[in-house]
């Protein structure tokens, strides 16, 4: 029989539970009180690198240039635009600092109508990813009376500019189960249900094709999806593209003409691009545009009037390929560094020869390029400013291949400061990974990370199985009954750093969040001796209990990621690695676990129960902290500076263990 002695923590309405979480916070604050000045120093240091009055690169849509900007001391973005040219008068659409003035937490985004006259403001003030929608008339500056509460998506405008579509959660499981249409001026209680997903393992959403001709309703789970379409200019019954099929994912777009473009893994582990006539888009009519390739993973495609831009991954590195519709001619955009991240940017315009893409590496700040697909000329529109004495030439990035215990070749990206680094096994190190859902972790830049590198830390990202850095098989080999491969890869990468002189055997720290927090829990049980300390953020550590409870999020539509506990073999496999269930009476390294009281993705009680059990069973005197943000959810603190305070706390936790005080 499986007994859960800490199940009582599963009630955020119980004052005893709140008192318990507050007591854990107080304990951590007391034990780290001597680092408060250092935390403040780290916070100011990281903040000082940020250009506070910064702005995004504007994108042009019709006759408007849209952008976001920040002002000095401002926590939140300001959405703005100019008409005709960037020399025109600025129009403030939404000021996030005003929106969040009275809120302990704010996450918001916007959606502008096609005629540019209305803007939907979609905001969450709890951190649970429940959004309320209000509408502003940009011609008058007045707010309309329309109010829609507790949606789980953006507002997708119909092309008549009189209505929009959105998805809402099931009140129990929180999976998105309905798509509704709101007509301006109508009470939200009267909004029509356009689509309802009755299968409890599926989660639905709504979007718009690049051509703006069709509304697409998609529904899926981690292994399979299907989609419907309807005209964007008038409401109607959604029409099926192709029925759902186990282990087949597909997504739909339209670039004008008579065909849909469909990105799918049907008979294509690395995905392929097919087209199908709008008049009959069933699978029998799918024909290859880009076939499956064994050595190249097809990430995504963006469409323009005369070109398509293809984002791919080969041997774990991104490529962008430009294909001309007229004659099928193609070429590739070149990148130079050994480890980097590149991808297509936001390209809302259709009739253009310019594609925007982003580029970054562990030494190169986030950069935005505009690339002319006809002339092949590229223009650096912006490189993320890093204030102070930052010089990218002071840092070195490497990409190495680690042979895992079963012979698989695992890429790892490494960065360090050149004048601090000695390859003699004496350096402190930090290794990070995620390894789930097919999400790839890119070798990208972080200005905050400079505070680690400048103090001699070697930082590594392990591109472990469970992501898709090395293709579709890489994901399949790190999920369900292969999940332990993610843990093994991470441990083997950690040992490689130590065995090859990059990091000292007693100075390696590890971190991961959400499903990456599950990774942290797993490696702590499997190989605690490898790590000096571990930071597990919003950690999914109670796999079995969560997968058994069909009433909470991250359950039924994730059974094909983790396993269905109603199937004995899958239940036993999950039980064999679930961090909470495998805590043992033994020594563990220093641990900092974090969570958010309002987290709807990984409920706060998972890290809370895990830490409670560790406290009872561990045999060492190492530090064990649980920090609960009582005002936030899965993403932690809101606001660009408040988040840095949480990072400063984590860095101080690590530096204090290493004896670094400034």
From TrEMBL:
The keyword Nucleotide-binding does not apply. It comes from the Bacteria. One of its GO terms (molecular function) is serine-type endopeptidase activity. InterPro entries: AB_hydrolase_fold, Pept_S9A_N, Peptidase_S9_cat, Peptidase_S9A, Serine_Peptidase_S9A. Pfam families: Peptidase_S9, Peptidase_S9_N. The keyword rRNA processing does not apply. GO terms for biological process: proteolysis. Residues 2-384 form the Peptidase S9A N-terminal domain. Keywords: Hydrolase, Protease, Serine protease. Belongs to the peptidase S9A family. Cleaves peptide bonds on the C-terminal side of prolyl residues within peptides that are up to approximately 30 amino acids long. Has an absolute requirement for an X-Pro bond in the trans configuration immediately preceding the Pro-Y scissible bond. This is Proline-specific endopeptidase. It comes from Indibacter alkaliphilus (strain CCUG 57479 / KCTC 22604 / LW1).
């Amino acid at each position: 029989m499986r007994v859960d002695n800490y199940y009582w923590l599963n009630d955020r309405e119980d004052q005893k539970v709140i008192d318990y979480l507050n007591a854990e916070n107080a304990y951590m604050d007391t034990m780290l009180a001597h680092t408060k000045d250092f935390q403040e120093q780290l916070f100011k240091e990281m903040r000082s690198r940020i250009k506070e009055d910064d702005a995004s690169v504007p994108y042009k849509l019709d006759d408007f240039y849209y952008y976001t900007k920040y002002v000095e001391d401002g926590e939140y973005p300001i959405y703005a635009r100019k008409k005709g040219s960037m020399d025109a008068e600025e129009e403030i659409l939404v000021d996030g600092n005003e929106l969040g003035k009275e809120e302990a937490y704010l996450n918001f985004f916007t959606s502008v109508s096609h005629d540019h006259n209305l803007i939907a403001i979609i905001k969450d003030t709890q951190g649970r990813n429940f959004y309320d929608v209000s509408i502003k008339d940009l011609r008058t500056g007045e707010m309309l009376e329309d109010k829609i509460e507790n949606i789980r998506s953006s507002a997708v405008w119909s092309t008549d500019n009189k209505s929009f579509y959105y998805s809402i959660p099931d009140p129990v499981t929180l999976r998105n189960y309905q798509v509704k249409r709101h007509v301006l001026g109508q009470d939200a209680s009267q909004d029509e249900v356009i689509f309802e997903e009755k299968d409890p393992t599926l989660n639905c959403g709504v979007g718009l094709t690049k051509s703006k001709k069709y509304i697409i309703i998609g529904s899926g789970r981690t292994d399979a999806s299907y989609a419907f379409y309807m005209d964007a200019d008038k409401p109607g019954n959604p029409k099926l593209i192709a029925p759902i099929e186990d282990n087949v994912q597909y997504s739909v777009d339209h670039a004008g003409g008579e065909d849909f473009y469909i990105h799918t893994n049907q008979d294509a582990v690395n995905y392929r691009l097919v087209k199908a006539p709008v008049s009959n888009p069933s699978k029998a009519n799918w024909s290859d545009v880009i076939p499956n390739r064994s050595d190249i993973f097809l990430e995504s495609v963006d469409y323009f009037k005369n070109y398509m831009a293809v984002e791919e991954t080969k041997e774990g590195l991104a490529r962008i390929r430009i294909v001309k519709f007229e004659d099928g001619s193609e070429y590739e955009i070149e990148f130079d560094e050994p480890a980097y991240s590149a991808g297509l940017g936001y390209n809302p315009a259709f009739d253009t020869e310019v594609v925007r893409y982003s580029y970054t590496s562990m030494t190169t700040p986030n950069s935005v390029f505009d690339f002319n697909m006809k002339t092949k000329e590229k223009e650096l529109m912006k490189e993320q400013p890093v204030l102070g004495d930052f010089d990218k030439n002071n840092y070195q990035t490497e990409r190495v291949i680690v042979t895992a215990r079963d012979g698989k070749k695992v890429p790892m990206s490494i960065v360090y400061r050149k004048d601090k680094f000695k390859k003699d096994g004496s350096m402190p190190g930090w290794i990070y990974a995620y390894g789930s859902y097919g999400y790839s972790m890119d070798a990208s830049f972080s200005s905050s990370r400079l505070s680690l590198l400048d103090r001699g830390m070697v930082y590594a990202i392990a591109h472990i199985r469970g992501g898709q850095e090395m293709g579709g098989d890489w994901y399949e080999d790190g999920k369900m009954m292969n999940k332990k491969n993610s843990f093994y890869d991470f441990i083997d990468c950690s040992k490689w750093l130590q065995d090859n002189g990059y990091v000292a055997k007693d100075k390696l720290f590890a971190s991961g969040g959400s499903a990456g927090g599950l990774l942290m829990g797993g490696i702590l049980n499997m190989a605690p001796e490898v790590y000096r300390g571990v930071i597990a953020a919003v950690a999914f550590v109670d796999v079995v209990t969560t997968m058994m409870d069909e009433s909470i999020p991250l359950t039924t539509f994730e059974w094909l990621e983790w396993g269905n506990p109603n199937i004995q073999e899958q239940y036993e496999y999950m039980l064999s690695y679930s961090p909470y269930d495998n805590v043992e009476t033994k020594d563990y390294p220093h641990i900092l676990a974090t969570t958010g009281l309002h987290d709807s993705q990984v409920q706060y009680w998972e890290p809370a129960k895990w830490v409670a059990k560790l406290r009872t069973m561990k045999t060492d005197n190492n530090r064990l902290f649980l920090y609960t943000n009582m005002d936030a959810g899965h993403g932690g603190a809101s606001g660009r500076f408040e988040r840095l305070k949480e990072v400063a706390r984590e860095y101080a936790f690590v530096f204090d263990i290493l004896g670094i005080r400034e």
